[in-house]
Amino acid sequence: ASGAPPRSPNTTAVFALAAAAQDPTVAVSSTSRHDANLQVLTDALAMSHCQFLLHGLSGVTETSIFFNLELHRGAINLEDDDDDGHPSVADFERQLQQLR
């Protein structure tokens, strides 16, 4: 409750909780934050079971790759324009063609 802005560019969930916390007619319990955290971890774990992953810059995606390091080869970051050796969208398309 430091009042510091969220660090993630995705402020939807944090914004909703902050707005609800400022509205005295809306009850915000500690379980709502717990539920949100639990849902994010559940999503990351479910995503970690994928063979391929198209994603943007996301902490949830990064967490899913940490859960399953093999996913790193099948993960394509659509927001990564750097030519740093990571797979590209064209690489992803070739991988999918090999599955046919």
Strand and helix layout:
Layout: H1 12-22, H2 30-47, E1 53-55, H3 59-67, E2 75-77, H4 89-99
Parallel strand pairs: 1-2
Helix pairs in contact: 2-3
Overall description:
- By secondary structure, the protein is mainly alpha-helical.
- The protein is built from four helices and two strands.
- The protein has a two-stranded parallel ribbon with strand order 1-2.
- Strand 1, helix 3 and strand 2 (75-77) form a beta-alpha-beta unit.
- The protein is elongated and about 55 Å long.
Keywords:
single chain; 100 residues; mainly alpha; two-stranded parallel sheet; 4 helices
Order of helices and strands: HHEHEH
Strand order of the largest sheet: 1-2
Major sheet characteristics: 2 strands, parallel
The overall pLDDT average reads 74
Query: C-alpha Rg, in Å?
Result: 18 Å
The coarse silhouette is: elongated
> Distance between the terminal alpha carbons, to the nearest Å?
52 Å
Continuous helix count: 4
The assigned structural class equals mainly alpha
- Beta-strand residue percentage: 5-15%
How many strands appear in the DSSP assignment? 2
